[in-house]
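Colleagues,

For the teaching module next term, I've prepared a clean inverse folding example: a structure given as C-alpha cells, and then the sequence designed for it. I'd like students to try predicting residues themselves before seeing the answer, so please don't circulate the second half yet.
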C-alpha cells in the first residue's frame, strides 16, 4: 500500500510541475520537479522509507527513455556530426571518469579509487530533458543543439558501461586491464549487434501482425513500449550491454519503419507519439522528483557524519563541478580546433564566437536523470559482504553536482546565449525559418514512406510542400482569423443550400446526407463553431429517413454511380459557394477583407475545376482521389506532429504554434472540399 501511495504522490508532483512550468517559465522543469520532491520530503507527506532495488532505476527509467530518444533522434544530424558526437559521447566520458575519479580520491581518501571512478563515470552523461528545457530560456545554434542532443543519446550508454566496470572493480577488489578491454569490446559490440537484431525482429513481428490483419493501435503501441524492457533484460541475461542494445534497437526499428501510407498507420503514429511523449515526461519527472525526495535523507546521513565537515562536503561539490566543467570546456575547445563544422565546412576555431560556443556547449551539458539513476544503482554490499564504501556520500556528491549544473545552466546559458527580444522583422524571419524547417521535416518523413505503389501521389504532395517553402521565402503563408470566419460562413451557407435542395427533392437523400456529413466535418476542422446557423434537428430527421431507404438505394446503385451522385452534389454546392462569395464581393459589405474573399474564392474555384475535370471518368477519379487524399491526410498529420515537436523544443512560441496548427486545419478543410 505504501508503494501505491508513493506512486500516486509522485504522479501528483509531476502534474504540479507541468502546471508550474507555465507559471515560471524561466526556471527549467527539472529544477521545479526537484524542488517539489524536496518540499514533499521536508513536509514528511511521503510514506515510509521505501528502498528500491538499484537495478530498478536502470530497467524502469533508463531503458525506455533511451529507447524513445533513439527512435526520435535525427539520424541525418547524428550522421553529419558523428565525429564530434562520438568524441563527446565516448572520449569525453572516459576523460571525465578518470579526471574526476583521481580528483575525488585525492580530495577524500576514504573513497576508494574504483568507487571514485564510478562516480566520475556517473557524472559523464548529460541529460536530454535538461537540454530540451534549457533551449526555451537560451538561444542555441543548430550545431550546438545537434551536439548536445546527440551526445545526450550516446553518452548514456558509454557512461553506464564505464560505471558498471568501475563498480565491479570496487565490489571485487580486482581489476585486469586485458580482461576489462576484452569485456568492454564484447559488451559494446555485442550490445549493439544484439540490439540491432532484436530491433529487426521486433520490426518483423510488428509487420507480420499487421499483414495478418492485426491493425489494433493498442497492440502496436503496447508492443513498442514493451520493446525496451525486453531488449534490456535479454541483453543483460546474455552478458552484453543492455543500454547499448536498447539504443541500437530503437534506431533499427525506426530505420526499418513501415514505408506504407494509410489511415491506420497515420493513426498509429499519432497515438504512439502521444503515448511516448506522456511516458517520457512522466518517467523523467518521476526521476527528478525522486531526487528531490531523496535529498533530505542523503543529506541527513552525510550531514551527520562527523568524520567529514559539512563545509568540506559543499567544497567537494563545487570542486567536482569546476573540474567537470574545466575538462569539458578544454575538450570542446580542442575539438573545435580539430573538427570541421558540417554546416559550413570550415573549422570551428576559425569562426567567430567559437570560444563562446564552447562555453555554451560546456554549460549546456547539465547532469540529470541518467546520472541519478546510475548512481542509485551503486551496489549496497561488496563481494565480502561489507557495505559499499561511502555509498551515501557518493549519492550526496552526485546529487549536489546535478543540482549545481542544472542551476548554472539555467541561469548562465541565457547570459551566454541570450534569447533577445526580436524586432517585428526579425520575428517574422525567425517564424518563417521555423516553418520552413517544419515543412522540410515533413518532406523527409514523406520521402521515407515512398514505395513503388504510392510513388506518384507521394511525390506530388512533396512537390506541393516544396512550393510552400518557396512561397515562404518571400512572404508568410498563414491564414488569419478573418479568413477562418469567412470559411465558416461559406460552409454554413453550403449546409443550408444542400438542405433546401434535399427538402425540395432536387438532391437525393443518400448523396445529400453524405455531403452534409463532409461539410460538417470540414466545419469542425475550422473551429468549434456555433451551429445555430444550421438546424441539427433537421439533419437528424434526414438521418432517420435515410436509414429506412439506404438498403434500397444501395441495391440499385454501384460504387461508381454513388461516386457520380456525390460528385454532382459537390459541384452544385461549390458553384453555390462561388455565387455566394461573388455576392459578398459586390455587396460592398466590410465584414470580410478583400484579401480573405480572394483567398477563399480561389480555393473554391480550384476545387470546382478539379471536380468538373473528373466527370468523364468517375472510377479513375475515385481511385486517384482516394490515394491523394490518404497521402495528403498523412502529410498534414506529420506536419501537426512536427509543429508540436518544434514547440516542445522551444523553437516556436505557443501562439505561433497555434497559428500554424490553424493553418493546417484550414488546409484539411480544403482537402475535404476537393473530395
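(Answer key — instructors only)
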Amino acid at each position: 500500500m505504501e508503494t501505491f501511495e508513493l506512486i500516486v504522490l509522485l504522479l501528483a508532483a509531476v502534474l504540479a510541475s507541468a502546471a508550474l512550468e507555465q507559471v515560471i517559465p524561466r526556471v527549467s522543469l527539472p529544477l521545479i520537479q526537484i524542488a517539489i520532491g524536496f518540499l514533499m520530503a521536508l513536509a514528511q507527506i511521503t510514506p515510509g522509507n521505501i528502498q528500491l532495488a538499484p537495478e530498478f532505476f536502470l530497467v524502469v527509467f533508463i531503458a525506455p527513455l533511451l529507447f524513445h530518444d533513439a527512435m526520435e533522434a535525427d539520424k541525418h544530424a547524428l550522421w553529419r556530426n558523428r565525429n564530434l558526437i562520438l568524441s563527446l559521447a565516448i572520449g569525453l566520458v572516459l576523460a571525465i571518469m578518470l579526471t574526476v575519479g583521481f580528483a575525488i580520491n585525492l580530495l577524500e581518501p576514504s573513497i576508494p579509487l574504483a568507487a571514485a571512478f564510478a562516480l566520475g563515470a556517473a557524472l559523464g552523461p548529460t541529460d536530454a530533458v535538461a537540454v530540451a528545457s534549457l533551449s526555451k530560456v537560451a538561444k542555441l545554434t543548430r550545431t550546438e543543439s545537434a551536439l548536445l542532443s546527440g551526445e545526450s543519446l550516446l553518452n548514456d550508454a558509454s557512461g553506464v558501461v564505464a560505471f558498471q566496470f568501475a563498480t565491479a572493480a570496487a565490489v571485487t577488489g580486482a581489476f585486469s586491464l586485458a580482461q576489462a578491454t576484452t569485456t568492454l569490446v564484447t559488451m559494446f559490440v555485442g550490445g549493439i549487434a544484439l540490439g540491432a537484431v532484436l530491433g529487426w525482429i521486433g520490426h518483423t513481428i510488428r509487420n507480420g501482425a499487421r499483414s495478418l490483419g492485426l491493425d489494433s493501435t493498442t497492440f502496436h503501441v503496447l508492443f513498442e513500449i514493451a520493446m525496451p524492457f525486453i531488449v534490456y533484460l535479454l541483453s543483460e541475461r546474455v552478458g552484453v550491454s543492455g543500454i547499448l542494445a536498447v539504443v541500437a534497437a530503437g534506431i533499427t526499428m525506426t530505420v526499418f519503419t513501415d514505408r506504407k501510407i494509410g489511415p491506420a498507420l497515420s493513426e498509429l503514429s499519432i497515438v504512439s507519439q502521444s503515448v511516448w511523449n506522456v511516458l517520457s515526461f512522466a518517467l523523467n519527472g518521476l526521476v527528478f522528483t525522486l531526487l528531490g525526495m531523496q535529498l533530505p535523507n542523503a543529506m541527513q546521513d552525510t550531514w551527520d557524519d562527523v568524520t567529514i565537515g559539512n563545509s568540506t562536503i559543499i567544497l567537494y561539490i563545487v570542486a567536482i563541478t569546476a573540474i567537470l566543467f574545466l575538462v569539458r570546456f578544454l575538450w570542446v575547445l580542442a575539438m573545435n580546433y580539430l573538427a570541421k563544422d558540417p554546416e559550413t565546412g570550415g573549422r570551428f576555431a576559425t569562426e567567430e564566437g567559437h570560444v563562446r560556443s564552447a562555453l555554451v556547449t560546456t554549460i549546456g551539458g547539465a547532469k540529470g536523470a541518467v546520472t541519478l539513476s546510475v548512481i542509485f544503482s551503486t551496489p549496497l554490499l561488496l563481494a565480502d559482504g561489507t557495505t559499499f564504501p561511502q555509498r551515501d556520500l557518493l549519492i550526496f556528491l552526485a546529487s549536489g553536482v546535478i543540482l549545481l549544473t542544472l542551476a548554472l545552466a539555467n541561469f548562465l546559458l541565457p547570459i551566454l546565449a541570450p534569447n533577445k527580444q526580436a524586432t517585428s522583422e526579425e520575428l517574422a524571419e525567425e517564424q518563417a525559418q521555423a516553418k520552413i524547417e517544419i515543412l522540410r521535416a515533413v518532406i523527409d518523413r514523406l520521402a521515407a514512406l515512398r514505395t513503388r505503389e504510392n510513388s506518384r501521389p507521394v511525390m506530388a504532395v512533396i512537390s506541393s510542400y516544396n512550393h510552400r517553402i518557396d512561397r515562404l521565402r518571400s512572404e508568410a503563408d498563414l491564414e488569419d482569423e478573418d479568413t477562418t470566419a469567412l470559411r465558416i460562413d461559406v460552409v454554413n451557407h453550403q449546409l443550408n443550400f444542400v438542405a433546401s435542395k434535399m427538402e425540395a427533392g432536387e438532391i437525393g437523400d443518400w448523396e445529400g446526407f453524405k455531403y452534409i456529413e463532409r461539410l460538417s466535418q470540414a466545419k469542425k476542422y475550422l473551429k468549434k463553431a456555433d451551429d445555430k446557423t444550421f438546424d441539427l434537428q433537421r439533419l437528424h430527421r434526414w438521418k432517420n429517413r435515410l436509414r429506412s431507404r439506404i438498403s434500397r438505394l444501395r441495391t440499385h446503385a454501384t460504387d461508381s454511380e454513388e461516386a457520380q451522385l456525390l460528385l454532382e452534389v459537390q459541384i452544385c454546392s461549390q458553384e453555390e459557394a462561388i455565387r455566394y462569395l461573388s455576392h459578398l464581393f459586390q455587396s460592398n459589405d466590410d465584414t470580410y477583407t478583400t484579401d480573405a474573399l480572394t483567398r477563399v474564392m480561389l480555393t473554391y474555384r480550384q476545387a470546382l475545376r478539379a471536380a468538373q475535370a473528373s466527370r468523364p471518368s468517375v472510377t479513375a477519379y475515385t481511385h486517384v482521389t482516394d490515394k491523394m487524399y490518404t497521402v495528403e491526410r498523412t502529410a498534414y498529420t506529420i506536419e501537426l506532429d512536427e509543429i508540436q515537436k518544434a514547440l516542445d523544443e522551444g523553437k516556436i512560441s505557443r501562439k505561433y504554434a497555434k497559428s500554424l496548427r490553424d493553418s493546417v486545419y484550414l488546409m484539411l478543410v480544403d482537402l475535404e472540399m476537393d473530395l
